Each structure stands twice: as C-alpha cells, then as structure tokens.
TrEMBL record:
Pfam families: OTCace (PF00185), OTCace_N (PF02729). The keyword Transit peptide does not apply. One of its GO terms (biological process) is 'de novo' pyrimidine nucleobase biosynthetic process. NCBIfam families: asp_carb_tr (TIGR00670), PRK00856.1 (NF002032). This is aspartate carbamoyltransferase. Residues 240-391 form the Aspartate/ornithine carbamoyltransferase Asp/Orn-binding domain. The lineage of its organism: Eukaryota, Viridiplantae, Streptophyta, Embryophyta, Tracheophyta. Catalyzes the condensation of carbamoyl phosphate and aspartate to form carbamoyl aspartate and inorganic phosphate, the committed step in the de novo pyrimidine nucleotide biosynthesis pathway. SUPFAM superfamilies: Aspartate/ornithine carbamoyltransferase. InterPro entries: Asp/Orn_carbamoyltranf_P-bd, Asp/Orn_carbamoylTrfase, Asp/Orn_carbamoylTrfase_sf, Asp_carbamoyltransf, Asp_carbamoyltransf_Asp/Orn-bd.
Length: 396
C-alpha cells in the first residue's frame, strides 16, 4: 500500500509528526479555517469517494491562513483506520458527515466498554483532572445531564450554565467567539447547544480545545444521531437492510437530519418520511440520500409505514421553530400519533424511538410495550457521550 510522507504540524505550541494512510479524505478545495500546511499530503479511508471534503480537524487550530489542499487516493488494506498513533482522528464533533462506518464502529466499541465502566461500583478516574464546560443557549434535560453524568462517571469535573442565552454575557451582547475564547481558558472541552444553525462550526473555528455540538438550532445534533444508531444496532441487531420511518417535524428536527446522514453509511437502508405538509423533510436531505444511493419515500399513511419498518422514529412538532405562526403549529400538531393501534400493525421485532422531550405524539400507554425503546435510547446517550469524551480528551 502506498504511504504518504510524514506531515509535521503544531497544536498549542507542540510539534507532532504523524503518518497518514487515509485515502479519500478530501478532494481539491480551498479552506479558510483550521487549514493544513500546503506541504501536507493527506490520504484517508475514513470517507467514501462520494463524500465531499470535510475539514481536517487533526491540524493546528491556530493556523488560519488559506491553503489549497490536494489529496491523492490510494487503496486501503485491512480494517478502516480511525486514529493517528493513539490519537482519535476527530478533534471536534460538529456534524454527522464527519463519520463513516469505520468511525461509527470504533465509537460504538468504546461505548460498549463505557457500559462496563458505568456499571462498575467504583467507576473510572480516566478523566480525573479534566474540566468540561457546558454552554447551553437553549433548554435541555437529557443532553446536558447525560454529558455531565458522563464526565463525572469518568472522574472529570463540570463547569455549567443552564441557560447561557439569558444568564451569560451573551445577554449583554457578547459575541459567541468572545465567549468561546474566554471559556476555553477555564476548561479542556466545551459542549455547546445554540439556537443558531452553524454556531457549533463557528465555535470550533475559534476554539483551541475540542467542541462538541449538542444541537445548533434546526441544524444538526450529531451526538443524538450517534446514540440513535447505537440504539438501533442494539435493539434490532443489525444496521444493514433496515427500514426506518422518520415521523413528525422533519423540517425543523435536527435529530432526524443528523440520523439521515448517518444511515447512509449502511447498506440497503430505506427511509420513510411521514410528516404534515408544513414540516416535510427539506430537499437538501432528500438530495443527499439520493446521491448516496439510499432509497427514500414520502408517505401520509403512518399505519402502512409502521407495518413495514424496523424502526419508528417519532419526533415532536417543535412549537419554538414556528415563530408567531401558531396557526401552522396547530395544523401540524397531533396529525401522526404512535398509539396502541400503531403498535398492533408493527412487527414483533420493531421498535419505537423518540429523541425527547415527548408531548402527545406517543401516548403513554405505549410505554409498557417491549418495543418502546425510547427510555433505553436515552440511557444509551450516556455511553456514547462517555466514549466521545474519552476519545477526544485521551484518544485510544
């Protein structure tokens, strides 16, 4: 196998030499943030040839100059690599497009180890001495608490603000960039939820420490998608050849967008979109699925779709995304509800999932059915987030 020459880079003043053998990481593209030195030759097997160039998070964050990067693809042998030495390839978790099947398998393997750590009576001290800052500009229960629990179960400490939009200097007009530059001085990793799509990418371009996107407006929620795929694998026993129904607010739901991206990494997947007309899945996701050869279909018949699918992924209609258009919200709300009638047509092995919070889109009498996987799904978020914190802060 052809190998690239070692590339030297610096991060926070330290110099490191690494060897790359990752084909297809990127194509010719100009970058303006976290740019690589022009002399670096990258080759990556982490992404398929049909994927666009993703930003290389391996290189120094303090290199902000423009650079044209050209990558030469070579054949990879053996198992997909996701590390350089003992370092996890990704420096930030910003969107689902960063991951491919090899990366997902590696994260899930660590998550399974984290289940053992969490069940241990003494836990682990592997992140002792590390501080995680949580900046949540939007409300959160599961995501914020699961990240904080993950950090503490691994021996780390947490700095947190529950409502950064109101109770931080953002209320005084401070820019996101200034907030990030300040908070990174107090912590080793930042977990951020923001009301604006693209905010996590801005934070990552600014920070010299890892950033994890815990949801950016109607954009993406990559860690939720990771735990969703992890849950599907554990519940169904496979990820290839599955049929998944995405139900509810598909226009504003960052969880379904991120999940759709990740499902393209598996073979023979079919996705059904079931939603009111006012909140249909946006064309960019449909076009991406088509470009990746993933079969998808829109349907207005929940009962028909439920009888075919392995996973019903229900979401709430998000009132906060409608602004003042309460008429549109009321038009969309309550149209598709998972109840015992829906359960009656589902296959025995199928499961119902939900990213929470739940309103009335899944009736409480579904909770007692063994196919109601949403509380198990929420618990899996702990293991995935423990795995990500470990990988980003310590590597392998």
């Amino acid at each position: 196998m052809t190998m690239a020459s070692p590339a030297t880079f610096s991060r926070n003043g330290f110099r490191n030499e690494v060897m790359f053998n990752y084909p297809n990481l990127c194509s010719n593209q100009s970058r303006d943030t976290k740019a690589m030195p022009a002399s670096a030759k990258m080759q990556s097997s982490l992404l398929t040839s049909s994927e666009k160039c993703v930003k290389s998070q391996l290189f120094a964050r303090n290199l902000r100059k423009n650079s044209n990067i050209q990558c030469r693809a070579v054949a990879a042998e053996g198992k997909t690599l996701v590390t350089v030495g003992n370092k996890f390839l990704l420096e930030d978790i910003i969107d689902a497009q960063q991951f491919n099947r090899g990366t997902l398998d590696a994260v899930f393997e660590v998550a399974r180890e984290m289940e053992k750590v969490e069940k241990g009576s003494l836990g682990s001290q592997m992140l002792k001495g590390h501080l995680m800052a949580t900046l949540f500009y939007e409300p959160s229960t599961r995501t914020r608490l699961s990240f904080e629990s993950a950090m503490k179960r691994l021996g780390g400490e947490v700095l947190t603000t529950e409502n950064a939009r109101e109770f931080s200097s953002a209320a005084k007009g401070e820019t996101l960039e200034d907030t990030i530059r300040t908070v990174e001085g107090y912590s080793d990793i930042i977990v951020m939820r923001h009301f604006e799509s693209g905010a996590a990418k801005r934070a990552a371009a600014t920070a010299s420490i890892p950033i994890i996107n815990a949801g950016d407006g109607p954009g993406q929620h990559p860690t939720q998608a990771l735990l969703d795929v992890y849950t599907i694998e554990r519940e169904i026993g496979k990820l290839d050849g599955i049929k998944v129904a995405l139900i509810g607010d598909l226009a504003n739901g960052r969880t379904v967008r991120s999940l759709a991206y990740l499902l393209t990494k598996y073979q023979d997947v079919k996705i059904y979109f079931v939603s009111p007309d006012v909140v249909k899945m946006k064309d960019d996701i449909k076009e991406y699925l088509t470009s990746e050869g993933v079969d998808w279909e829109e349907s207005a018949d929940l009962m028909d779709v439920a009888s075919k699918c392995d996973v019903l992924y229900q979401t709430r209609i998000q009132r906060e995304r409608f602004g003042g258009r309460t008429d549109l919200y009321e038009e969309a709300r309550g149209k598709y509800i998972v109840d015992p009638d829906v359960l009656s047509v589902m296959q025995k092995h199928a499961v119902v999932m939900h990213p929470f919070p739940r309103l009335d889109e899944i009736t409480v009498d579904v909770d007692g059915d063994a196919r109601a996987a949403y509380f198990r799904q929420a618990k899996n978020g702990l293991y995935i987030r423990m795995a990500l914190l470990k990988l980003l802060l310590l590597g392998w």
